[in-house]
Amino acid sequence: MHIDDSLGDGSAELAALGERYFAVQHSYDPYNATLLGLSEFDQLPGDASFEASQDASSQLAAIGKKVDALALDLGRLSTDEIIDRSVLSSLVHGAQQDAEHSLWAANASAKGYVSRQALVFQAIPAMTAADSESADRYCLRLASLGRFFAGIGERYAAEAASGRPPTVCGVMDSITQLEGYLALPVERDALLAAVSTSHDPALRNRAESLLEHEVRPAMAALAERLRGDILPTARADDRVSISTVRGGGDSYIAAVARHTTTDLTPVEIHRIGLDVLEQTRSEWQIVGQRALGNSDFGTIAGHMRTDPGLRFDTSAQIVAVAQAALDRANTARDRYFPAYDIGDCVIEEINPIDAEHSALAYYRPPAVDGSRPGAHCLSATNPSSRFRFEYEALAFHESVPGHHLQLALAQKLDIPRYRRYLDVEACSFNEGWGLYAEQLADEAGLYSDDLSRLGMLSMRALRACRLVIDTGIHHYGWSRQRAVDFMWNNTATTAANATSEVDRYIHWPGQALAYMIGCREILRLREQSKSAQGSRFVLSDFHQTVLGSGAVPLMVLATNVERWNAGVLTRS
């Protein structure tokens, strides 16, 4: 798309720049586009090469210069467009830094959004092949996956040779995911989800043939290359910090800024995490005494970890707890929010192969064309290892009043589409809202008992630990084991989950900071509004102000709330 530098109308120029950003970003990262519900990039397999990253970085940098130039003459823009420009500037510069540093390429892993190979297992099952157009896109992507997986292997090898080797734990996690996937017969392949209900046998046969003869051999070759070529060069568990690789220190600072949308330093964030953990201990004592008859944190955590009665017996029980929590939240929704016209959220189990390497839960927005609903996707495998007390807080975070309410609403707002479809690009707002939703559910009395409230506190402590551990690893140089021990000593999670969480922070530097930093800012602004408005303050109106402009950087959110407090309304 060519942008005419001679445009005199600020509105037209801003709109053109926004569309250019949208096209560049989602062409570079088409799997995230699929997860956001956008189908127009579904035919793209992605390009893992260094050249693709550099090209995206260059294009985004050029867009960013033009967006920044608009700030020199804001009189050409309306009030709402000034907000649009601020958001676009943050998005473009964050995406440019992400492409430039490409930390995923120095951190082979199987962890969700940050792993190129893991995105395949998340995004392709979310595709549809309901008509000839979508079926063609689906088959085009499958046909190109062989080259994509080969490209991932080439990129890892090149990065390792240039002083950016991955970690041993990440490489092993990647191999385990690939080999676990390949162990299943092709007819049970998760990547066939789009054609599982198709009445066209030729389409299914074509998909199966592509998987059997092109995709699976490429995955096997990647697993072999990881084990034979990449693993011997990988960083040991005492060198998991991204600061140990070439350029890693500067890359981490950029990641912190992108994911928090603040100017907080790693040192400041580390201190905030320690302070929140200390503040949370008093609540542990009160709720623990009611729920378990004990106020000692160590005893409470030990009971929560080891009592078999606090585990599930079946996967169906896990889904039922999440569904019941969602139902209660939907019933109470109108007391805390305007009557939003959004579709229902569904509960879906994560595919067992993906679940082994996934977070306990994540949210997948509805498709733009209505072909799939918004979904709270949760891990329900190995139910005897899952805690009953965690799944209510997870449901409120991922569904209502959390991500589903927020992201499904954003798709319907009268804002540019580069702002309607955001997830990892606006972490501090999105994940801050999700954590805020867990607390709001408690204020609304939605938790079924004090044990589930202990689960909420454990999840809050985990998010505080993220501030300490992420900065501990990547700024202070903590080892993997030191980070796991800190998580174990400050939450009620298991050793296995503590390790899984820490591995996520290792391989996605900075992202885990977004939750608590964003939540604290929303709570700060709520208190600010209460103080400014006094008896005029209405909680549902505050929520509309926060959500009514979509996901925005935290500094833009503060400006929006301050304008609302002053009686100046913006687009909603």
Which terms would index this structure?
three-stranded mixed β-sheet; globular; mainly alpha; 572 residues; 2 domains
Structural topology:
Layout: H1 10-28, H2 30-35, H3 50-70, H4 79-101, H5 116-123, H6 132-161, H7 168-182, H8 201-230, H9 248-260, H10 266-292, H11 297-306, H12 315-332, E1 345-349, H13 352-355, E2 361-364, E3 374-378, H14 391-398, H15 403-410, H16 417-420, H17 427-443, H18 450-474, H19 480-490, H20 495-507, H21 514-533, H22 539-547, H23 554-565
Helix pairs in contact: 1-3, 1-4, 3-4, 4-9, 6-8, 7-8, 10-18, 12-14, 14-17, 14-18, 17-21, 18-19, 19-20, 21-23
Largest sheet: 3 strands, mixed
The end-to-end distance, rounded to whole angstroms, is: 29 Å
Q: What's the mean pLDDT score?
A: 93
- The total number of structural domains is 2
Strand arrangement within the widest β-sheet reads: 1-3-2
Radius of gyration: 23 Å
Number of strands: 3
Share in β-strands: under 5%
Helix content: 55-70%
* Order of secondary-structure elements: HHHHHHHHHHHHEHEEHHHHHHHHHH
Describe the structure.
This protein is mainly α and 572 residues long. The chain has two domains: 10-238, no CATH class; 255-519, no CATH class. Helices cover 61% and strands 2% of the residues. It contains 23 helices and three strands. The protein has a three-stranded mixed β-sheet, with helices on one face. The longest helix is centred in the first third of the chain and has 30 residues, at 132-161. It is globular, with a radius of gyration of 23 Å. The two termini are 29 Å apart. Mean pLDDT is 93; it is low at 1-8.
